[in-house]
# Entry
Amino acid sequence: MKRSTINQLLRDAKAFIASRGFYLPPFAFWSPADWATRGPEVAEIPTNALGWDITDFGSGDYTTCGLLLFTIRNGHPHNWETMSGKLYAEKIMVVGVDQVTPFHFHWNKTEDIINRGGGDLVVEVYNATADERLCDSPVTVSVDGTLRTVAAGTRIRLGPGESITLPTRLYHAFWGAGERVLAGEVSLVNDDTRDNRFLEPRGRFPEIEEDEAPLHLLVTDYGRYYTAERS
Ligand SMILES: [Fe+2]
# Structure
């Protein structure tokens, strides 16, 4: 993806998120120059991969297969070993109409996906077989605390305010319907480097063509603009 495209998506996302009355933390608005002045006090942000994240899942077509996320809070996967510290995560996501996040499941993370306003969020669900393909067995999911058993491949439509709990090894794909959706995610610790099982091989983080300077850093940019040693 071109950096100029990413910058425009970020401007657009900030306006959309604000228009829905949702407030991001201050580090969402830091520039690369701001990052260059920060020291070890902000190491949690890159260490736990907080912040902006834009992906086209390797599709080359962000508008039909992509997602824009901001990770507001997250623990580190190491916390599982000690069962201490943050074991949870929260994200806000911008999901376009018919913009698909492709089928995947998580081995470790249970997540709630929440429609926080806009159009409807459509979530298609399948159980996974032992060899991690789509299973044709009925799927039982919790939608706002109410169990629902549906046929494999059912598209569950969540209106504003509704949410679904996606347990481990439950394949899910989602997209917006009617209008763009502001979606939330509340989950166990998020580990995008090791805990995503895509049904088809997918790139999680895009290659970036640097045709202009970054407006804000993505989670994959911190290493080039920030070191904890600087003060
Ligand atoms: Fe997921």
Remarks:
- Residues 139 and 150 are 5 Å apart (CA to CA).
- The chain has a mean pLDDT of 96.
- Residues 3-19 form the longest helix (17 residues).
